[in-house]
# Entry
Amino acid sequence: MSVALALIEKVARAPKAELHVHIEGTLEPETIFRLAQRNGVVLNYPTVESLRQAYEFHDLQSFLDIYYAGTSVLLTEQDFYEMTVEYLDNARANGVIHTEMFFDPQSHTARGVGFEIFMPGVLRAMKQGEANGISSRLIICFLRHLPEASALETFEQARGWFTRYPEQIIGVGLDSSEQGHPPSKFTRVFALAQQAGLRLVAHAGEEGPVDYIAEALDILKVERIDHGVRNLESDQMIARLRDSRMPLTVCPLSNIKLAVFDDMRQHNLLALLNAGVNVTINSDDPAYFGGHVNENYAALITALDLNEQQCYRLLRNSLESTFASAELRQSMVTRLDQYWARH
Ligand code: ADE
Ligand code: ZN
# Structure
């Protein structure tokens, strides 16, 4: 076996955390079709193959249009349960021992599907995952293309749920179309979330300028930056991220599919890692971008010729950057260290 293949296998079985995955982005075309049939939803695509063929994106918006169409098949508690179970099973098969999942309530409430439908389904799946050996948390994301008033309304709808399930629903995030929707648009709702004791993250620097990363840090007070790779030519920002150990949840396959970088060999992940930035590897929307977290590691190992030590650092960063308790984080790092020493 080649050295790269052996390393890909070692990493694939290593304990790891996933910190950037949209549950709705884990819906495989087959699942979309199955749920559409079950729920009597008519899709614009006659077959699974034709839907899959439409997965040719040239930027974030061209992806989001299809992604939101895919969510239209989710109508019942059981649908949300099955979607989450399927992701957690896949994640477990990828060596993920802890995951912090994004969820987009507004893409469902806009269709008349409320918290009382989707929350019980997602929570039921998370409980089952826990029994199967994967711990999971939920981060509620606000759609940034909508007004802050809609985010505030969503936050109030969520309040009863995160108050009742503080161990499961741990934070808020910001996603959807980045350009023209700066983090500062969501100042008030993030301040409320912080007051409520929630953890804070935001997508920034996926397509937008480096100023959006600065706004997310300075105005929203986020504790992790989701993506953070685009337009990162600023030495000052790189030094700031490095010195503060600010985690970046990087999604390499997503970045290629959405043309953030032309080619994996041009990805700045290794440069950031070598600069001492706390980068982590994640799948974003695995059903749309060509694979779960292990496929992301494999693509990077192949294209950037990552060595064993660099892979260990990425795995360890993922575990250390979770919002799990200090005890759980330490025990997860110990699991990684024991695995790494034995293999
Ligand atoms: N929602 C789902 N995937 C996303 C991404 N990559 N960027 C922004 N919003 C998203
Ligand atoms: Zn994302």
The two ends are 15 Å apart (CA to CA). The chain is about 55% helix and 15% strand.
